[in-house]
Amino acid sequence: MSLRDDKAMAAHSPPQIPMELYRQNRSKLIAAMRQYLQSQGLPINGVILLQGGEEQTQYCTDGIILFRQESYFAYLFGVKEPGFYGAMDISTGKAFLFTPRLSEDYAVWMGKIHTSSDLKVDEVYYADEMEDILRSLATDNETMLLYLLHGLNTDSNKFSQPAQFKGIENFNTNLDILHPILTECRVFKSHLELNLLRYVNEVSSAAHVEVMRRTKVGMKEYQLESTFLHYVYMFGGCRHCSYTCICATGENSSVLHYGHAGAPNDRTLKDGDMALLDMGAEFSFYGSDITCSFPVNGQFTDDQRVVYNFLVLTKPLFPK
Predict the structure, then answer these.
(1) Distance between CA 294 and CA 222 in Å, rounded?
(2) pTM for this one?
(3) Is the dihedral of CA 262, 264, 267, 273 positive or negative?
(4) Separation between Cα atoms, residue 167 and residue 131, nearest integer Å
């Protein structure tokens, strides 16, 4: 690796994540919920309740799969650890986090147990206190209404799972209102969110360029994937990717979701191949999605150049 490359790589400076970003996201959701409830003639009260992700092991083993927070929960609270619940009082706008009650042994094996001062919301309690705290938010001895997240992801055709906890049967629940409103909130990004998206796309773009520089005939597709993963983590602080890397060459380029366990980026690159790489890093829950194509030997054939230039010239005619 040359000194010039070292300097270029060192230019990436992972940004600090301001807690204001999540406060703004929560405020946007509260405002949207109030507006909707008012438009429907419904009481502007109740509690939004989300359950964060749970840590998983590899089947029956004690090997822990690297945890990644559930996206809606991350959007509102920015909590990276598993086992949390988050709530928002629609009438007051106050935000609550409910943490798992961890034993002292946890600190020995897993590290520092975060205190309430580490969690930048209005109030923090243990998850086993949640039922009583939620009950206390009700007015006039009415049964508290919980707005739970439940809706279809049309990309995966899977449903988000509503929060579950012991005692939820003592509350009224609504599964219809929250999901479409929160999903729409996530569509429009704040300036703080755009800064994160710019950063992760900058790192991912540079990683793609690094892969192009290092690609040679005779390499394996997984070596291109490895180069990308190393770059975004080593020089960009991106531990996760947005999706499984697609490093397709030759005839594999026609397989839309190549790179999965049954086709694991393992073909040998041949002279004259085109590479189609679809890879994107993720930083603090914000992801990139970049696809590029290039000849693995660095030179387009006449036919490849015609097709490539045609796509470049016609791309502006088909805006997203």
Answers:
(1) 16
(2) 0.93
(3) positive
(4) 6
